Input
Amino acid sequence: MALPVADRSTAKTPSTFGFIFKKAALSALVALALFSLMIGIRTEAGPSGQLIYWTRFGDLAAIVAAVFVGSILVELLRQWLGPAGTRTIVPPRITEGLSVASRFLAPALLVFALLVPVIFYNQRYLLDLGILVLTYVMLGWGLNVVVGLAGLLDLGYVAFYAVGAYSYALLAQYGLPLPLLSTAYPFITVEHLQLGPWAFWVLLPVSGLLAALWGVLLGFPVLRLRGDYLAIVTLAFGEIIRLVILNWQDLTGGPNGISGIPRPTLFGIPLNPGPNGLAGMLGIPFSPTHRLVFLFYLILALALLTNWVAIRLRRLPIGRAWEAMREDEVACRALGINITTTKLSAFATGAMFGGFAGAFFATRQGFISPESFTFQESALVLAIVVLGGMGSQLGVALAALTMIGGFELFRGLEQYRMLVFGGVMVLLMIWRPRGLVGHRAPSVFLHRERTTISSDMVKEGRG
Amino acid sequence: MDYFFQQLINGLVLGSIYGLIAIGYTMVYGIVGMINFAHGDIFMIGGFIALITFLVLVSIGLTFVPVILLVVLLVSMAVTALYGWTVERIAYRPLRQSFRLAPMLSAIGMSFVLSNFSQVAQGARVKPIPPVITGGYTLHESAAGFAVQLSNVQIVVVVTTVVLLAIFTWLVARTRFGRDMRACEQDQTMAALLGVDVDRTISMTFVIGAALAAVAGMMYLLYYGLVDFFMGFVAGIKAFTAAVLGGIGSLPGAMLGGLAIGLIETFWSAYCSVEYKDVAAFSILIIVLIFLPTGLLGRPEVEKV
Amino acid sequence: MSVSPDILTVEHLSMRFGGIVAVNDLSFAAKRREITALIGPNGAGKTTVFNCITGFYRPSGGSMRLVHDDGATFQLERLHDYRISKVAKVARTFQNIRLFPGMTALENLMVAQHATLMRASGFSLLGLLGVPSFREAEARAIDVARQWLDRIGLVDRADDAAGNLPYGDQRRLEIARAMCSGPALLCLDEPAAGLNATESGALSDLLLAIRNDFGTSILLIEHDMSVVMEISDHIVVLDHGVKISDGEPRAVRDDPKVVAAYLGADEDTAIEVMESGT
Output
């Protein structure tokens, strides 16, 4: 069936061995020039602070050879798949099949998530990984409101994650400040309310609200900015927050971070070995896995809450206004939509979920430091959202699972991790610039049958 | 007052380095309309190439400093330019007609690749070199004993920057390539129809931007005497700030913006606090974009309704 | 007490961009429940007038007064852009269609009812909880949208992406969307551009129906003289930012100054102006 196409491709591009060989040789030559110095010669600061070097020509030869072979393989693959540009790697039939399967995929994933602590009860590593994946699913769903729905490119999302985490940690440490009226000058005193076992449950919403407030604070100045400018300003904002946390040692402990953050309780009942702990009260032997299982269900519940709110908001006028703003801001203004409040509400909503996730992160780790809130985190969450397909809830969940899972595969090769992550990001963008789930489901229907809109039609927003 | 003049000199030198990087941002933004996130890391690569070349030259027994400097400059420009070319070829060209977010994420990915590549290839530790250019002049000595110094390194940095800038300006204003580049900035389709090889022009833009970043990397190495794999990120954002401050797309603007950022950072460190110098630079980025979105020398963008 | 017969009164409107004067001391009035056409050669400043009325430009001088049927009066030059639509009830379409291409036809019409729905959803809080009063409001909004889709013959394609609709349908959908915001004054920027004869005929019927059935006043920029002469109650002619003629279609058509302006601009159009309606 693909015969005519294959014929044309062979006619157009010379697929002879000589051509491929020449191309590969050229790639190898470029690689040689690129890597001769960077890989062929290894520098290091010597014991006396003086620079020393040694050669690694073996490694260099191996890499150049790898580039040569890889280039041949890529070229063969390309010719086998048909001419570049016209080829679609995933045939439409399969994509359609996927969209049918996706209807069952979401419930199946949910059931699986609910069963994870039961199936993997004895594998703490997997439970930990599950908690990590769900944290990123939640962050992805939160950022999706800003980037996917409202079309506002936010490269500093980690700032709100940090605000949430530090809000929780600091308020738990110092107590919740409550302004009280008093009869004596200055008529208002601030009491610090220590929350004890209820700290997490009271401070979780507080952290989310504080993060939302920061979302609005950031949103105000950047209202007029578009596209890349917005991206770079949000990036700068994220870095400013991190640098302030890093340098404001009196409050945040600077690079040493904050430790001894209170662990969450099952609505007041601590999960510890003591007689008042959950295990003690139930009369069962204590196990640290209890807390892990509890944390797993806690983040699952938080993620599902995020999902529920996001799906719900999308079908409300505010959600439709977000999407309309992504499609055409000028038309929105002509229809009486206040761009200012619409943008700010998107920032605030996204930031709030980031704040929740941050508070959860703090209580899970028991320790936070600025190192956890670098630009790389923002890039990771954004990559999850874009790979997920901008606005698709299921896509984001799948992307988080793939990305974080894939990240863990490289656990042993710590130093290669970011290298591979960066490379994968580039390849994914070239392979599927529109993400895994490439269509948009309308928010309201007039007729019964459910249609979807191809992402070729959907705008990505200029904001 | 002497302290002020000393900071002024330091700021101008630092600003020259930022300006050289900023030109790469501004050129690429002008022609393909994207922030080349990997450009800061190209600058870092340039620094490393300069360091390694320097080491090799010294170990083969070359001692005449001007020759060393010239060879290091040429080698790091050439190799780094090839990095710029490769990055464009691999990560950006396939996405040129794609939707806007894709090249941006691809660029962020490429930035991670480059910085972690040099971490893996050259180790995470800071690499120092002994001062290559020593000596200098004392311009003025106050009664209190504070001297305003102008070191030879500073002179080399500023002179190199000025010379390269002159060559570069001539390239853009007078040559065939410069004309093609300006044509592609205006309208790529039309330029292609008129026989401009758009792909090659864009490639050349990346190559030249990377070569100038390599110069900046080498100057950084000479001036501070060290390089590390993470220096590209912050320097990149600051240079981007400089490009925006000068008006993105404007070449003299990039240089002017670079000088401004260099001065602000130096004076902030000298008179306010060193810890918050990056916060100051980032805050300026935000303030400029909000109040002066077209920068100092940029053209205003009029929205058609 | 009688309300002014003019829904929109523009007085001494000027708009300068740098040294260029796009609109110079323009005064005209649009009557209630009438179709007023704004015509003139290319570059006469028509769209600039629209952008001033709908708040996309802040005029360099002059005033624009809008009076609702109930006597409520708005100075448009003092209102922020989105409030002109939300409060003063002026809706508009664009010369180059500005639908939300990735959203369905129905969604486009729902977005136009944003203000009403937003209030009904208790600024999202009540809507999030799914209270019955919001569901009712939403059902009503869908009903309004359905009626408009019916009127423009797009009920069957309600759930298709607006960007996938044929050009003529997109034009009509944009008008329907503007009408869904419940305007007192509807401003249409070249609604017949790119339409064939049958389609512009249907457009004329639609605009007449909007005026007759809904009592909405219409301000229209149009180059298609058959449409203009057929449906306009009143015509204002601009040239180089200055008003050169103002009156009933017949009077304007015979105005030598108008003929001269069009002759100066383009002979074919001038002949069209003179021949149309005869």
Observations:
- The longest strand of chain C covers residues 6-17.
- Chain C touches chain A through 50 residues (CB under 8 Å).
- Chain C has a mean pLDDT of 86.
